[in-house]
Every structure is written in C-alpha cells, then in structure tokens.
Amino acid sequence: MLVKRLFSSYTKALNRLHRAPSCSKNANSDCELVSTGETIASRRGFSSEPNHPPEDCQKPVTVSLYQIKKTIKGSLLGESVEGPTCIQTICPVCHIVPGVDGQGGTGANRKKIFVNKTTGNFTCSSCQYLGRWDHIEKFFLPTPIRSPKAVQELRKLRDAFLELKQDHLGTVHPIPGDAIVLDTLDRARDVVRRLHLENIVPETLISIKARWHEGRNELFVPLVDVEDRLIGYKKLYAAPDGEICECTVPETNASGLILLRCTTSGTGTKAKDHQSQTNAILVLSVLDLLALGSVKINATAVCLPHGLKTLPQQCLPGLERFQRLTLWFNYDTAGWDTARNFAKKLDERRCLFVRPTDQHPTPYKALQEGAIEPKTILAKAQPILHQSITTFRSLRQDVLSDLQNIDKVQGVKWKRYPTLNKLLKGHRKGELTVLTGPTGCGKTTFMSDYSLDLAQQGVSTLWGSFEIRNTRLAVTLLRQMVGRPLDENLTEFERWADAFEQLPIYFMTFHGQQPIKLVMEAIEHAQYVHDIQHVIIDNLQFMMGVLDESKHLDRYWKQDAIIASFRTFATRRNCHVTLVIHPRKERDTDELTTSSIFGGAKASQEADNVLIIQDKRLTSVRGKKYLQVAKNRYSGDLGIMPLDFDKASLSYAQRKKKPDGSDDGPGGMVTEPPDRTVRRAF
C-alpha cells in the first residue's frame, strides 16, 4: 500500500506538470516518461539545468536537511557519508531493482549520488546527471516490497526514471583526437618553450595529462569529474601579442576540475602525503595551477572550470575529500567578492583566503616577479568566517594585549574627578553614558566641566547642545578652563582664547528639534573627519521636540529609536556617546533611580553607565548634592561622588586640601578624603 500511494502521488505530480502551460515557446518537451502504459511529457518533471530556476514555471522545492538525512537513514540502504557540502549515498535507482534480492554490487562498482545539503539537488557520480531531491526521494523505501503488484508498479516507475535520466546524461566533450599526449619530458619542455611559460616545471604538464596540438599550437588540459573521468577540457594558446589565452569547453556548467598534487619532494613521508591529499589550493587559471606545481608545497592545486563566473554545484563532490581549502584568486575587488561567495558554497568553516592586495599577486605572477615566494603568501592566508562570528584563537592576542595594558584599557583618567576614576576606572571608547537629574540641578554645567577635563587630555569632543546656544556653552567652558570670571580680567581673554582654540572641541550648530537622520549624518561626518572620540547630546528631549508632524508617533517609541541609533553608532565607530536626559516628574522627596529616566526602559538598558545627579538641598536642611553612579557595566562598582559647586569657576572639580585646612583651586590633582565617598550597591 505504501508503494501504491507513492506511485500514485508521483504519477499525479507528473500529470500536473504535463498539463501546466509552458513558459517558453522554445522549450523542448520531446522527452517522454512511460508510466502505467500512458505517455507523459516529463521534461518539466526533472531538472537538467542546475543553474536555472527550477522547472521553469514551477516553484522552488523547499528541502529540509533533517528530512533528507532521516529519509536516507530510514531506508533499506541506510548507508551514507556526510561531507562539508554533500551527503554521499548509494543510488537507490541504479542498483536496486524492486523484487530482486542480493543486488547492488560492492565497492567501486556501486554507483553513488551526492545530495547537496543546501539545495537538495543530487548529482550522479557515474553520469553527472543533476536532478531534484523530491524526484528520487520516493525510491528510498523504508521496508522491503512484498506485493507483486507493488513491485510491478515500482519497476515501471524506475524504468521511466532511468529512461529520462539516459536522455539527460551529462555531455562529454573529448579532447581533439589529433592532440598528442605529453608523456615524455622532452615533449613537455618543448611545449613550455613554445608557449614561453617562464619558471614552469615541465613535469607538471605530464602530471595533469596535458595534450599538445602541433598544428594549431594549442595546449589541452583535461577536466575530470569525481570519478576521474574526462568530461571537458581547458585550452591554452598564445595570442598575437604573446599573452596566454584560456578558454573552457563546455563554456557553461562544466562539472570537472583540474587537480595537481604538489609535494615538497619525490618521496615524502606519510604525514606530508596526507597533508597534500587533505589540503587544496583553489585557483582560477591553468597558469596559476602550473605555478603552484613548480614550487614545493604540501597541497593539491585545483583549477576551477569557469574562473570567477560561476562554480557549478556538480563540482562540489570533487572537493569533498579536502579538509581545508585555500582560495587564491585575483587581487582585485571582484576576486575578493567571489572568494566570499564561493566560500559559502564550499562551507566557510574549512575555507581560507589569500587577501587580495598588491603584495599578494596570483601564483603565476608571483613566480614571474620572484619578489615574494608563493609559500610566504600562502602562510598569510586567513580563514573566511561570518563577520559576526569569531573564536578565542582570533581574540587571543587581543586578550593578552588588554591584560598587559590594563591602565590603557580602563580609559582616560579624570584629573578633576578622582572619585570617578575609582568607580568608573576611566573614560572608554565605544560606550554609551546616560546622565540625568532634576531640572536646574546643573547637568549641563557638570557635563561641560566633565568633557573639558577629557578634552584637555586629548579626547576629541563633539558637543551637540540643543538646549542652550553654543556661545553661552563656550563661555562656560572657557570660564571652567580659566578658573575665574574673564569679564573681570578682559586683558587675559586673548591668551586664554588662544589656549582654548588648541583643544579638540567641536560644536554642532543645531538648536531645538532636529531629525535624527540629519544629526547622525553630522556626527558621522565629524567622527570621520576629526576622529571624534566623545559625543555629547544635551539634551535628548530638546532634540526630539513637539512638532505637529510627529504628534501621531508614540513618543516613547521615537525616543527608543533615537537611543538605538546612538547605541549602534557608539559600537560600530568605537566612539563614546553621552546622552543628557531629563527624568520623569517625581516627588522632590524621592531619590531618582534608573527607572526615573524619561521614556521606556531602553535608555537604562542600552547604557553602559548611568549617572544621576541627586539634589537634596531643597528638601532637607542638611541636604547635599552628589553624583550617583547607578550603573557601571565595565567594573560593576557603584557609589556616589559629592558635588561642591564653585561659582567663580563654574566647576564641580574636587579640591585638594592644603595642610592649613584651606582649599586649593579647582581642577588640581586631588585625593578625596575616604569619608567623602559612600559606596552603595543596588
């Protein structure tokens, strides 16, 4: 009954294909599949064009790798070998005749198919026939066939499949018969001389079974399939200008490769022989292949049939036995892009690439120039992996460097705020800091003093003040730098102004509401041109605004989108971003927390550091103002730093205590008293 249902569904599917209208007037439909005595047009039921859309009008078949493995394992054959790109198993059609016991042959006599793990297309190793998995899946039967009627029906289906397969066998393109085999060293040397193949060892032509046409002065190199059978060839000849030209026959969908086993010496050890059999170097031309054969390396050189144009999936079975593939293509953008695309077909985990630079030319050119040994270039090959995936091996040296330079990793230290050095350890690139505090508590004043300290140490800073004018901000920064009001000392303005101009501080000219896209373009431009390391946005609510065009948008969603943009910028550009955000309106007697930040939870979640200015002077007789470190992703240390405001310098810088008990000027190097820092864990 199982076979009956399979046969019925298979026949109905072919009938539907027969009734489907043709997409092309020139489409051939002369192939017939005889099933249950009826003639069915079947050209559209099986695919012989692997690189074209499946079955012209048909929808692509979705194939599950798990289902393929399950079907093969649960069948009577049950024998399969999984490789990097294909699953190798015995062909259930060629060797299994329904109702006949003791069949299938053994060893090399058994025909194999290779099922592509990505597309599901299968390739027959004996005839290079390419078909779809859903066409052969029905022949992997889970139980023996007992019913004579079911055996007869399945035999008809098998005969129809074999008939269609015979009509679509891969075409073999033999080398012209009048070309002579280069089987002697003298003949090979003569060909090398005629084609002016400098530095090419003649023995390599013998190894690849090349042939030479005496009349046309053409060199033929055979393309072989996974069973080492000839299926086509590459032709080399010298153009009138002396350049070696190369063409492939057939021009498309060639399923063969050219392989040349390279060894360091004639009699190598077993380890070296194994290395040459499991490591392959993929090149685009025969000249590059011959160049690799002329140097001492333990690998197999493989020439692809169509260069950068395409890599037919019929070629993949021939590369299954290699554990490592090094892609050595042209040193240009096209070669680099093609290497990455081919690596996806070949399984990126086993692929390495030679970086396409002028210092890494192709093998034949490197052999001609003689400046760099091909072995030296191969030693610099790097693995091709997903850009978002890495391993500890790749990070190992970075980890060691971080441990050896822990002070630099912690970031730039503040000179005005030593307590912050104790809590935050330093100001680091690539982080996002959120500063919040009640209205009028001095967020902008503190942030200008905070940023000035870093700018004086060489941290290039970009100020985006959407709340106050740049002129007023510059006055505050200049006064904090000088340490006293300049309006009472105008004669010193020029000197201090010249000193301030030397600081790496830049200002955005925006004010009020601005589109996030326009702001990000300005920031990215400044970061690229001026190498900005610290971006300050004061403040987020002013930048968002309340225009009519945005009144229908959810305000929380809009703020989250802006925060996400700054988070992405900080990470990708390795730049520190500080956002000043107003808190929600809460009772004055309550302390602010990370939940008090206006908007959703994204601001506190995305931030690496959350700084909160707590001002209790108006709610308590002995109330103080202090900066609370509420989140610290780097070291996890939390605590508070008292803020004592000096009106003359507009600074919160901690002052150094003199022996007589008086205060030193702001901005000096200080060590705060132990009782001035209160540690708190949240």
TrEMBL record:
Positions of the SF4 helicase domain: 406-659
Transmembrane regions: none
Pfam family, one: AAA_25
GO CC terms in record: mitochondrial inner membrane; mitochondrial nucleoid
One Gene Ontology biological process: mitochondrial DNA replication
Extent of Basic and acidic residues compositional bias: 673-682
InterPro entries the record matches: DNA_helicase_DnaB-like_C, P-loop_NTPase, Twinkle-like
Top EC group: isomerase
Key words, A-Z: ATP-binding, Helicase, Hydrolase, Isomerase, Lipid-binding, Membrane, Mitochondrion, Mitochondrion inner membrane, Mitochondrion nucleoid, Nucleotide-binding, Transit peptide
EC number: 5.6.2.3
Catalytic activity: ATP + H2O = ADP + phosphate + H(+)
Molecular function terms, GO-annotated: 5'-3' DNA helicase activity; ATP binding; hydrolase activity; lipid binding; single-stranded DNA binding
Residue numbers spanned by region Disordered: 652-682
Main location: mitochondrion
Subcellular location per the Swiss-Prot or TrEMBL entry: Mitochondrion inner membrane; Mitochondrion matrix, Mitochondrion nucleoid
Membrane topology: Peripheral membrane protein
Stored PANTHER family: T7-LIKE MITOCHONDRIAL DNA HELICASE (PTHR12873), TWINKLE MTDNA HELICASE (PTHR12873:SF0)
Protein name: DNA 5'-3' helicase
Source organism (scientific name): Anopheles dirus
